[in-house]
Amino acid sequence: MADLPPCPACASSLSYEDGALLVCPECGHEWARDAAASHDDAPRVHRDAVGNVLADGDAVTVVKDLKVKGASSALKAGTKVRQIRLVDEDHDIDCRIDGFGPMKLKSEFVKKVQA
Questions:
Q1: What is the pLDDT of residues 66-86, one digit of tens each?
Q2: Rounded to an integer, what distance in angstroms lies between the CA atom of residue 98 and that of residue 100?
Q3: Please, how many CA atoms are within 13 Å of residue 102, restricted to the half-sphere of its CB?
Q4: Would you say 60 and 113 are in contact if contact means Cβ atoms under 8 Å apart?
Q5: For an engineered disulfide with 60, which of 15, 32, 83, 110 has Cβ 3.0 to 4.6 Å away?
Q6: Is the Cβ–Cβ distance between 31 and 22 less than 8 Å?
Q7: Can you tell me the mean pLDDT for 92-110?
Q8: Which region holds residue 72: left if phi is over 0, alpha if psi is between -120 and 50, else beta?
Q9: Does the structure show a pLDDT above 50 at 36?
Q10: pLDDT at residue number 37
C-alpha cells in the first residue's frame, strides 16, 4: 500500500486515493496529491490591499475605518501602524497602535508605507 500524506485539514492519517484526488473519510476534505506537497513547503505571502508584499517590521496605514470591539471609537482610515509582525492566523498582522494598544489586523485593510 502506498504511503499517503495525512489530511491537510484535520491531520487524519486515514486518507485514501479516489482517482486523481486524495480523500479524508473523517472530515470529507479532498485534495490533489501534488497540491498537498507544494502547499506545505511554500511559505505564505502576505499582501496588502493593493498587492504589495508585506514583511515583518514594515509600516502600514489603515485604508478604511474599522470598528474595534470593546473600544469607544473606530480605528480611522489613515492611522499609521509601525513595526508589524506577520502571523499565520485568521488575522495576518499583530501590532501595537498608539491610543488603542495591541491589535490584530487583516492585511486586506492596510496599505504598506513606501519608505
A1: 998 888 889 999 999 999 999
A2: 6
A3: 3
A4: yes
A5: 110
A6: yes
A7: 92
A8: alpha
A9: no
A10: 52
Q: How far apart are CA 53 and CA 81, in angstroms?
A: 16
Using the predicted structure, report yes or no on whether residue 31 has a pLDDT greater than 70. Answer: yes
- How far, in Å, CA of 8 to CA of 19, rounded? 18
CA distances in angstroms from 27 to 30, 33, 60, listed in the order given: 9, 17, 38
Task: Give the separation between CA 115 and CA 70, rounded to whole angstroms.
Answer: 33
Count other Cβ atoms within 10 Å, centred on residue 102: 8
Q: Any alpha helices (H) in the chain, and if so which ranges?
A: 33-41
What is the pLDDT at residue 4? 85
Q: What is the β-pairing status of strands 16-18 and 30-32?
A: unpaired
Q: Which three cell numbers stand for residue 29?
A: 476534505
List Cα–Cα distances, 5 to 8, 18, 21, 31, in angstroms: 8, 14, 12, 11
* Confidence (pLDDT) at 39: 52
pTM as predicted: 0.62
